[in-house]
Amino acid sequence: MTEPASTGAVRHANKRGAARLAAVQALYQMDVSGSGVFEITAEYEAFRLGKEVDGALYREADAQWFRAILTGVVENQKTIDPVIRQALTEDWPLSRLDSTLRAILRAGVYELMKREDVPVAVIVSEYVDIAKAFYEEDEPKLVNAVLDRVSRRVRGEGRGKDAS
Question: Which segments cross the bilayer (predicted)?
Answer without folding.
Answer: none
